[in-house]
Hints:
The protein is α/β, with parallel strands linked by helices. The protein folds into two domains: about 10-240, 3-Layer(aba) Sandwich (Aspartate Aminotransferase, domain 2); about 240-370, Aspartate Aminotransferase, domain 1, CATH 3.90.1150.10. It has helices at about 10-25, 30-45, 55-65, 80-90, 135-145, 195-205, 230-240, 240-260, 295-305, 320, 335-340, 355-370, and strands at about 50, 75, 95-100, 120-125, 150, 160, 165, 170-175, 190-195, 265, 275, 280-285, 310, 340-345. The protein is globular. Bound molecules: pyridoxal-5'-phosphate (PLP).
Amino acid sequence: MIPVCIPFIGEKELEYVVDCVETNWISSKGKYVEEFEERFAEYCGCKYGITTTSGTTALHLALASIGMRKDDEVIIPASTMIATAFAVIYCDATPVLVDAEPETWNMDVEKIEEKITDRTKAIMPVHIYGHPCNMDPILRLAREHNLYVVEDAAEAHGAEYKGKKTGGIGDIGCFSFYANKIITCGEGGMIVTNDEEIAEKVRSLKDLAFSKERRFLHTDLGFNYRMTNIQAAIGLAQFEKIDELAEMRRRNAHLYNKYLKDVEGLTLPVEKEWAMNVYWMYSILIEDDFGMNRDELMMALEKKGIETRTFFIPMHEQPVFQNMGLFKGESYPIAEELARKGLYLPSSSGLKEEEIRYVCNAIKEIEERRL
Ligand SMILES: Cc1ncc(COP(=O)(O)O)c(C=O)c1O
């Protein structure tokens, strides 16, 4: 089976982990945590980097650090991974949805303004599948309406918008280092920001909000979202080859594009002229004229030993939110269409060209045989 995604781990990761164990620095203090934070922040063009236990907890902390509270609203895409919306709910605030746009599959910037109310506190763009959102219009709206911009860059390490790294464009950027991400530390996350006050707050909240004046006295509701030095050791070793790993994803995408470009009924991922797409997952749409629907194609590929995944199910269709009475009667046609037609193909950084060719030939064979 060619899996959808496996990590690309090497000797350096092992060496750094062994160093943690041998030196006894296995908990959440240590040189790997510090260096990983500093270097990752700098890479994103930010002054401050703060590690967390996951992308989800990074998003939660980001929103908590700007004082999100009950009745506040956060604008998020309808088509995203559920953690984006969960983070808003954890703060007792309300997610407000914006449909996707059909080309990049990111939040449609034309549809954001109509969702802004006097309760809106933040916009949370998600750089979906590694393609950056069109950030300028989002930043302009945020300035006009005095809103925070919290980037969910969980899937977009190293991607660029007009030459700027995603995560470092808004007020706060959040990353995930889950095993399928462009760099991983098993489980983990990171917040980057240029705002000293936010950075301080995040550092405090992630560590149970111990007060500086007197330990064991707490004025805020804190969390334990501390990454261990062992995780950071893997993260740093991965970080040292971040550009190479992003480039491998891009090379894979270019090969897929080359082999699939003439297959009728497929929509391939784009790269806008202002973007550098890191193709976290090589994602395609199975259009109605492919002659077989997305689920049938997935089953046929599975029989040939090729693992695939569907796109995310939109937030307004999630039972967990419907049961909370959210998004009643709302519809987001583009997000719904993407969920129906979208799948991603094997996308590991270390994928070999023969494997990509095998996947593409399998798709062509399946397509030809049904004709
Ligand atoms: C867009 C997006 N946001 C948030 C997350 C949550 O990250 P984690 O799994 O590290 O909690 C993920 C991914 O896995 C994601 O894809």
